[in-house]
Amino acid sequence: MRMSSLILQTAVRFILPLTFLYAAYAALKGHNGPGGGFIAGLIASVGFCTYRMSYGDRAFHRLLPVHPRWLVFVGLGLAGAVASLPLLFGQPLLRSASTTLHLGGSEVHLVSSMAFDLGLLLVVVGVAVGMISRLGEELDR
Amino acid sequence: MTNDLLGLLVVIPLATSLATVALVRRPVPQRILGLVSLCSMLVLALSWLVRIRDGEVMVSQMGAWPAPFGITLVFDSLSGLLLCAGLLVTIACYVHGFSMVEPSTERRYFHPLMQLLIVGVNQSFLTGDLFNLFVAFEIMLMASYGLLAIGRTRRQMTQAYKYLLLNLVASTVFVITAGLVYGMTGTLNIADLARFVADRSNAGVPLPTGFTGLSVMLLVVFGLKGAFFPLWFWLPDTYHTCPISIAALFSGLLTKVGVYAVLRTFPLVFAAGDARDVVLPILAVSAGATMLLGVLGAVSQHNVRRILAVHVISQVGYMVFGISMMTTVGLAGALYYMIQHMVVKSSLFLCCGVMERHAGSDDLDEIGGLLKRHRWLGVAFFVAALSLVGVPPLSGFFGKLVIIRAGWTANWWLSAIGLVTGWLTLLSMLKIWTQGFWSPESGPRMNRGGDASGRVRCLRAAHTGIGILVVAAVLIGLAAEPIYDIAFHAAEQLTDPTTYIRAVDPLAAGSVLTASGGGG
User: Does the beta-carbon distance from A91 to B64 stay under 8 Å?
Assistant: First the structure.
């Protein structure tokens, strides 16, 4: 499943950082607006998949040196840990804690559910990239 | 009462699933972890069930968002009983799997998938939210697809594929229906829905147009999962092709989750108002057809596994019969029957696994003389089979007694079908008994204790699994009264939703509580 045209390769070199940037924006925006870890994960995996399509499997392994299943593993572990941490403090599952940081005059609102969202992002990227790579391997044969 | 530890029943299996992924190449630590996880959940569930034996309801609001806005986990008598029975069955099947599941299958994520299945099943039993129920179904199904597919040949995969396709269709209909319910009522919380319905019926305001349609759509979804007539066709082939311990687990858990969903949502919400006149006759006719045609199908089969698999359908009919009355006694009978059925049916499947291993086949023509060589297997099968038929004092008797007696005044013809089904059940069990256990030894393919590749494997774990369930089946029969009491509390809370609504959503309950006992 490799479509190695020069135009695509050059374009992807610019598209990839942009998709990641947009994914990060969507992930951070998700706490109070439309967006969140799930959507951000899908956006990021679109970037990964176009990269894999244009540069092939080997270059892709240099970009993402671990098997996608470990992304799912780490993401699920992170999300599960953040979700169940409140149980230790006698709070229900998924309760989020928040704090406001003052950094040089600007206020940053930090919530623990951001870590949950990050876990979700990793799971979605892992699943999507893993499935598409697996299908790609079948086609490459 | 609030109990924020309810989430543990979802978190423990999820964490165990992750831990076993990390240990995927080492079967023994995975088995130990898995057993620890299942047993600790059973202990938790049992201790909570004892605490709520007077009919209280435990609630945990996820993320501390109050009821109609967040996800609520509810542990009432209904969920509690099913959770305990489900976990008990899972432990037995899991232990049985230690000697039955091929090592190659075990290395391919068998343990993580088992835990993931339990995440889904526990969440389905606990959740108090219609959309979350959908999510739980999906988790459960995803794990079950995996369990059906690992280590399978191409032909077996076609069966798994059929199962997958049907469930995808059902899930799609489910999520569409959930969307429509939200559009119509503005809520997906089951307690809030019950309040919505009760408010309307108390005020004499008719339910929104199309509510009946939603009820029927949900009935189709749950009916497909629960294998009601006429949506049962996927079941025999699916159960025929997977490893026997997994088939036993599926027969004990998966269809029951469908029945549970009907039991939870229909008396509280979807069988109200006009919908009642449509849903109840459908349920009644479906119950009769499921019972009778299911058992006829079972009698006509010639493989032990197929007989048992088709029997699952027939037994689901009794539960639907109990539900179709929508009375306290009927629902309590259905619930008690479900509990004992989960245990008994799985134990029969587990026995069947050992029979296959001893005789090399599950075709009744090829096996025989098992009683002479394996007396305790025969005893276990005999007890479980009689319990399935419903011989006193075994557990099946009480379930059938309650349902058939309650049904005699409401739908005497269904009770008659129930009795006929009982006799035919006896006939099909006798078929296995006489040909498999009593007949003289025959069969060209005797391999004593070897598996598919001819290796002899220790069956001690399999025997332990069978022992757990058969003892449990006898105990459920002997302890029929306390268990039936809890089931009765559960049924009372289903027919009169005030306790449930008050526990889940104290603020909204006011409007219902002032009216006379609620509707539903």
Answer: yes
